[in-house]
């Protein structure tokens, strides 16, 4: 492709150079030379455009093939689309004898969770802490049923195995706030409404007020119609988090999973956002995957994960701070701002 471009582009330069020589020797009228080079231009340009188009078509067909390959991939998770959707989801979740590793087939891979038993009670808040790689985010993935346990089961609504229920109807009641908030290309209205598509403008505005984002949006020249995302208005890390919190207020989930939701923010913004997250968590079963101990001071129960041990300690922040153990070590290591 590059060769074609070079040859085509050089044709014009060569014609001009030869033309200049001929004009100098009085063998060619300058006006004729000008019209010849212009004709070459109008001949070469469409050819170059076609060549460029062919190049784009080739990369588009490669991308289309990759998308088709991904779409055709068989998922290991049966989402049970044919099962009657759950009318409601109770906030209690129970892990029974759950062991998990990512590659079932690899005998050498150690279990990340081993025989984990725990009951999350409705409306209470929990936090998982522990060193990096210990398996905190893996628990969030099991709760979202991105993976099924290698052995053991997760139960919701008392006795319903997460593997057997209509997954979409369960996930409709689960709110997930990721470390890196997902902003879509669209207006504030589109972004807040994402996931609750039938919400009215008034409901979006109400959610923005709860997330303490209303005054900021309202102060923009185009207000809630300001376009965000790639090539759109750029939000700061804290504003993005607030936007996701507004989205969650609108969704009103029974179960809330916060995966290090404030870890990308500086201390001052983090403290402000923490207030909004606490409001959001009130009355919902909340599970925090935490890096900073300061964000989990108020949760009902902290579970300390340790490699090869599982849950080595549990209790409230003040209880754990006062006893010798892994939590105190994390606390003393400065994980508390
Ligand atoms: N998709 C995956 N495939 C294979 N192994 C994975 C996958 N995701 C995570 N792991 C491995 O599982 C272990 C637990 O990872 P996990 O992300 O749950 O830890 P974490 O405690 O959340 O760590 P961090 O605090 O660094 O986020 C790690 O050894 C990690 O390398």
TrEMBL record:
PANTHER family: ATP-BINDING CASSETTE TRANSPORTER, ATP-DEPENDENT PERMEASE MDL1, MITOCHONDRIAL. The keyword Transport applies. It is found in: Membrane. The chain crosses the membrane at residues 6-23. GO terms for cellular component: mitochondrial inner membrane. One of its GO terms (biological process) is oligopeptide export from mitochondrion. It is a multi-pass membrane protein. The keyword ATP-binding applies. It comes from Zophobas morio. Residues 93-333 form the ABC transporter domain. Keywords: ATP-binding, Membrane, Nucleotide-binding, Repeat, Transmembrane, Transmembrane helix, Transport. One of its GO terms (molecular function) is ATP hydrolysis activity. The lineage of its organism: Eukaryota, Metazoa, Ecdysozoa, Arthropoda, Hexapoda. It holds the Pfam family ABC_tran. This is ABC transporter domain-containing protein. SUPFAM superfamilies: ABC transporter transmembrane region, P-loop containing nucleoside triphosphate hydrolases. InterPro entries: AAA+_ATPase, ABC1_TM_sf, ABC_transporter-like_ATP-bd, ABC_transporter-like_CS, P-loop_NTPase, Type_1_exporter. SMART domains: AAA. It comes from the Eukaryota. PROSITE patterns: ABC_TRANSPORTER_1, ABC_TRANSPORTER_2. Its main location: membrane.
């Amino acid at each position: 492709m590059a060769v074609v471009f070079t040859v085509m582009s050089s044709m014009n330069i060569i014609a001009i150079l030869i033309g200049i020589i001929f004009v100098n020797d009085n063998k060619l009228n300058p006006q004729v030379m000008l019209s010849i080079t212009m004709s070459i231009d109008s001949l070469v340009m469409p050819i170059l455009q076609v060549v460029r188009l062919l190049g784009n078509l080739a990369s588009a067909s490669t991308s289309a093939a990759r998308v088709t390959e991904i779409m055709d991939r068989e998922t290991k998770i049966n989402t049970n689309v044919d099962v009657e959707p759950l009318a409601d989801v109770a906030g209690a979740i129970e892990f029974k004898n759950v062991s998990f590793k990512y590659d079932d087939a690899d005998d050498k891979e150690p279990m990340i969770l081993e025989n984990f038993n725990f009951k999350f009670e409705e409306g209470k808040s929990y936090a998982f802490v522990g060193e990096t790689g210990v398996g905190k985010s893996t628990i969030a993935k099991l709760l979202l049923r991105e993976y099924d346990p290698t052995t053991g089961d997760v139960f919701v609504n008392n006795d319903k195995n997460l593997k057997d229920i209509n997954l979409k109807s369960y996930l409709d009641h689960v709110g997930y706030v990721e470390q890196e908030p997902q902003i879509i290309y669209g207006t504030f209205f589109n972004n807040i409404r994402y996931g609750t598509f039938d919400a009215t403008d008034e409901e979006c505005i109400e959610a923005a007020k709860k997330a303490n984002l209303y005054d900021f949006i309202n102060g923009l020249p185009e207000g809630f119609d300001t376009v965000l995302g790639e090539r759109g208005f750029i939000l700061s890390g804290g504003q993005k988090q607030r936007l996701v919190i507004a989205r969650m207020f609108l969704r009103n989930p029974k179960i809330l999973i916060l995966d290090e939701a404030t870890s990308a923010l500086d201390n001052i913004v983090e403290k402000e956002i923490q207030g909004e997250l606490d409001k959001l968590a009130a009355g919902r079963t909340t599970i925090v995957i935490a890096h900073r101990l300061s964000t989990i001071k108020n949760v009902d129960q902290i579970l300390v994960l340790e490699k090869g041990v599982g849950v080595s300690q549990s209790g409230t922040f003040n209880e754990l701070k006062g006893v010798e153990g892994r939590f105190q070590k994390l606390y003393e290591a400065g994980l508390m701002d």
